[in-house]
Amino acid sequence: MTPKIASFLDTQPATPCLVLDLDRVAENYAALRRALPAAKIYYAVKANPAAPILDLLAARGSCFDAASLPEIEMCLAAGAPASAISFGNTVKKPSAIAAAHKLGVPLYAFDSIEELEKIAAHAPGAKVYCRIAVNNEGAEWPLSKKFGTTLDRAKVLMLAAPALGLVPHGLSFHVGSQQTGTAAYETAIAEVAMLFTDLKAAGVELKMLNLGGGFPIRYLSDVPEADAFGTAIMDAMVEHFGNDLPEILIEPGRSMVGNAGVVASEVVLVCRRMEADARRWVYLDIGRYGGLAETEGEAIRYRITAGNGQTGPVVLAGPSCDGVDVIYEKTPYHLPLELKSGDRVLIHDTGAYVTTYASQNFNGFAPLQEYYV
Ligand SMILES: *Cc1c(COP(=O)(O)O)cnc(C)c1O
């Protein structure tokens, strides 16, 4: 936890709340720039669209990956030019495409002929890039099945783009979020490089490769540093593209904001459920519906602290009356034996994918408060 967050928490804000240190975001942005100086950074807005974050990144010259018209409007409000925005969702409403086009957004993702035709109809002349489905092995929050197409299919689609009045600009992939290994990028780069070559031979010269997001942060276990990803990626780019490097884009979300935020919550109840189970059940005032959606399947395992003292095993659950609202049951968590109702529990590294996942008053619980310090 950063000193700024610690001193803000000393003021005892009502819980649940997220406190996020903007200096940390600035450091993360600088670290990514250093790790991959050849790449343009398109911050994945969905990770945390708070205005102070977008303002900070826009002021530093970051570009933005937006998934919807409201996200595009937030980036513009932060001072980003439309030319710095990519409409990266491969599933877009025609009205959203038309509005983005009118606002001057130049770049559109797709992964099906149907979407390509929509872009052609509502954003004539736009630059398009095709998302390739790649192996998400090593990712703790995979995105694999829902998006992307095969190399063969992408070739057909890119060749079809000019006749539709579009500019076939590049390719993209996403190796899965919280990707803990560099190999996923290396394999994906090798695959898409072949399609660049194929398309060039067929008369379509692509200009851009979008490597997506996925860069991990440290939750409970160490992960490779940004520099390790930067080196592995550039080595793979040079190996497969030689001197003919395309423009490189990255779309970090989690790695830009995740470690900048801490959620403060209050213990609502500590009790035993079954005599035979040594574990106490700890109910917090935040759970699956309060923003901790990535604890689904216990995929993302946050670091959780609650003061000092001897600890024992716990099951962690949220405050709602839904049986699914259990945060961690299989992952072994230990909290102080003296923990009681009213105590504060901190959930660390919650700057990404928390605030906007909070439900709107499920069981009457308001979404968590957000403070950017
Ligand atoms: C969610 C998303 C990202 C960000 O992914 P992280 O794993 O948070 O870095 C980037 N690009 C696209 C297209 C996304 O959907």
UniProtKB/TrEMBL annotation:
Cofactor(s) named in the record: pyridoxal 5'-phosphate
* SUPFAM superfamilies in alphabetical order: Alanine racemase C-terminal domain-like (SSF50621), PLP-binding barrel (SSF51419)
PROSITE patterns, A to Z = ODR_DC_2_1, ODR_DC_2_2
Q: Which reaction is recorded as catalysed by this protein?
A: L-ornithine + H(+) = putrescine + CO2
Q: What biological process terms from GO does the record include?
A: putrescine biosynthetic process from arginine, via ornithine
Q: Which UniProt keywords apply?
A: Lyase, Pyridoxal phosphate
What single Pfam family name could you report for this chain, choosing any that match?
A: Orn_Arg_deC_N
Q: Does Isomerase count among this protein's keywords?
A: no
Which EC numbers characterise this protein's activity in its record?
A: 4.1.1.17
Record-level GO cellular component terms: cytoplasm
Residues that the record marks as modified (N6-(pyridoxal phosphate)lysine) are: 46
Q: Which domain of life is it from?
A: Bacteria
Give residue ranges for domain Orn/DAP/Arg decarboxylase 2 N-terminal.
Answer: 23-257
Which pathway does this chain act in? Amine and polyamine biosynthesis; putrescine biosynthesis via L-ornithine pathway; putrescine from L-ornithine: step 1/1
Q: Which InterPro entries match?
A: Ala_racemase/Decarboxylase_C (IPR009006), De-COase2_CS (IPR022657), De-COase2_N (IPR022644), De-COase2_pyr-phos_BS (IPR022653), Orn/DAP/Arg_de-COase (IPR000183), Orn_de-COase (IPR002433), PLP-binding_barrel (IPR029066)
Identify the catalytic residues.
321 (proton donor)
GO molecular function: any one? ornithine decarboxylase activity
Which PANTHER family has this protein been placed in? ARGININE/DIAMINOPIMELATE/ORNITHINE DECARBOXYLASE, ORNITHINE DECARBOXYLASE 1-RELATED
Q: Return the similarity comment.
A: Belongs to the Orn/Lys/Arg decarboxylase class-II family.
What this protein is called in its record is ornithine decarboxylase
Per the UniProt record, the source organism is Acidocella aromatica
